[in-house]
Amino acid sequence: MAILITGGAGYIGTHTAVELLNSGYDIIIADNFSNSTVTAIQRVEQITDTKIQFYEADIRRYTDLTAIFQNNTIEAVIHFAGLKSVNESITHPVEYYDNNISGTINLCKVMQEFSVKKFIFSSSAVVYGDPETVPITEDFPVSTSNPYGQSKLMTEQILHDIFISDNEWQIALLRYFNPVGAHKSGLIGESPNGVPNNLMPYISQVAVGKLEKLHVFGGDYDTRDGTCIRDFIHVVDLAKGHVKALDYFDTQKKGEVLTLNLGTGTGYTVLELIHTFQKVSGKNIDYDIVERRPGDIVVSYAAANLAEKILAWKTEHNLEDMCRDTWNWQSKNPSGYDT
Ligand code: NAD
Ligand code: WQD
């Protein structure tokens, strides 16, 4: 019995693979390597001293998936595979809906055929749009203004509908806040293609000298230092949330759709993250404050108590840990997996 990890060669997938193996689960990875490399899987093998079975497979291709389900006994699927840039989704909506929606429907079709009914889905805080208040609880209204966010909302809806049609399904919709950090070994981490869109990889690439200067988008927001606030969560804590969700389903006799935030419950400003990174890395992060980035949410952080209560899961890493582990990864792998 194995757990199939789609997108398992990616940033969150590799960290989840490590935590699953550490907890005694057997895993199989399926990835089309559109945003990752085989090296990442080899690094997971190195960390866990385990040979990993993986398939170069595209979730949009029916035959790719049936081959995996025919040749293995799959117990549950953790579904990371997909595209994740908000900006790119606006310029390439068809690609985003194809990967994130058609791909997921194809996966669900094959799961139905093989009667695999345990599903953990990577949703996102993006589904909350611009929240009226914080902390954000799971019952907040959802809304989104871009195809990436739509794809997450639509997938959540599709999974709800599957459950309505067959209430044996155990489905977790895990809404991640801002994953950062890396495994403490420094062997796996986030390795974006090109210039990063997200804050933490941008900071770490400035620190390592790959990028000259960070542009902080907006310094005049109504927050304690004028910059936006986010709920940064260490990717290892996030990964452990997935293991806890699987453990939880194993103890339940019935199907359900579980919707949970995975965040720390604490928000930090952009400047607080920069200063913490400087402190733990000993590197100066050159930055200037520029125009606001259109569409940015001012303050976003999770109410994390529901996941804590249901999954018996709690984040263990603080902001310093997140910066230290990011720097450890980045300094050991200045060009990510291309090193
Ligand atoms: P990632 O790009 O590092 O990993 C995704 C993996 O999926 C990659 O290895 C990629 O090659 C693979 N992939 C993409 N399309 C595929 C396809 N059609 N078939 C097979 N494999 C495919 O991204 P990540 O940061 O690890 O994110 C994983 C999931 O979590 C995504 O669904 C993302 O939307 C979601 N998420 C990420 C964040 C974040 O900030 N990183 C936040 C919220 C939600
Ligand atoms: C954080 C803060 C920026 C870069 C995005 C997606 C969301 C989710 C996580 C997947 C903001 C500021 C950033 C830079 C900066 N992904 N910033 N200079 O905006 O919370 O969310 O990633 O689901 O869907 O929308 O994350 O890291 O892009 O930005 O000043 O070069 O850092 O303005 O305030 P965000 P982010």
CATH class type of the domain at 2-183 and 232-263: Alpha Beta
Q: What is the chain-wise order of helices and strands?
A: EHEHEHEHHEHEEHEEEHEEHEHH
The strand order across the widest sheet is 3-2-1-4-5-6-11
Number of helices: 11
Oligomer: single chain
Derived structural class? alpha/beta
At the fold tier of CATH, the topology name of the domain at 2-183 and 232-263 is: Rossmann fold
Q: Which small-molecule species are bound to the chains here?
A: nicotinamide-adenine-dinucleotide, UDP-4-deoxy-4-formamido-beta-L-arabinopyranose
**DSSP strand content:** 15-25%
How far apart the termini lie comes to 35 Å
The main pleated sheet reads as:
7 strands, parallel
Percent helix: 40-55%
Radius of gyration: 19 Å
Quantity of strands, as a count: 13
Question: CATH H level of the domain at 2-183 and 232-263: which superfamily?
Answer: NAD(P)-binding Rossmann-like Domain
The 3D shape can be described as globular
User: What number is the mean pLDDT?
Assistant: 98
CATH-scheme architecture of the domain at 2-183 and 232-263: 3-Layer(aba) Sandwich
Low-pLDDT runs of 5+ residues are: none
